[in-house]
Amino acid sequence: MAVPNAPIGLVTQLGIDDFSFRRGKKFGTILVDLQSRQVLDLLPDRTAETSAAWMATHPEIDLVSRDRGGDYATGARQGAPQALQVADRFHIVKNLTEAVELALAQYRPEILQALRSEHETGTLSLQTNTTFTTDEIRSLPDATAQAAVVLQKIVSSTN
């Protein structure tokens, strides 16, 4: 893998994540310009000190997109204290998935009963007195939208 050798210009939005030099053996850090979507640099390790030192040479950084790991949070806090830290897309989805799973876990028996009933009658009815027609659910654009509407109706009917 070739490391970019072009001079690094202004970097205002930085993506930072780890990668493996050797599968599961040695890890480094990849730095990406989120505006140009270009790899800026590869760092030899995943330490806060190394990433902080790199970011300190770029005081123009105003946003750092990172994973949930503590080392990159510390590195950004030390090397780019002016930057807003945000979760990367993967971890936003992961956080949302975990939150939805936790919220739905308490309704698991009702959901399973409703699904069995829907299979038999063509109507999705929940013990929370919330009813959906099968066509109403299937008309939504994707499974995420379907789950969001079902969850919203369940929660609003129990409050």
Write the layout of secondary structure elements.
Blueprint lengths: L12 E10 L3 E8 L4 E6 L4 H9 L6 E4 L3 H10 L4 E4 L1 H17 L2 H14 L1 E4 L3 E4 H5 L4 H16 L1
Parallel strand pairs: 1-4, 4-5
Antiparallel strand pairs: 1-2, 2-3, 6-7
Helix pairs in contact: 1-2
How is this structure best described in words?
The protein has 159 residues and is of the alpha/beta class. The chain folds into two domains: 13-88, Ribonuclease H-like superfamily/Ribonuclease H (Nucleotidyltransferase, domain 5); 106-158, no CATH class. It is built from six helices and seven strands; from the N terminus they run βββαβαβααββαα. The chain has helices at 48-56, 70-79, 89-105, 108-121, 134-138, 143-158; strands spanning 13-22, 26-33, 38-43, 63-66, 84-87, 123-126, 130-133.
Give the N-terminus to C-terminus distance in angstroms. Answer: 55 Å
Write out the CATH superfamily name of the largest domain: Ribonuclease H-like superfamily/Ribonuclease H
Largest sheet: 5 strands, mixed
**Low-pLDDT ranges:** none
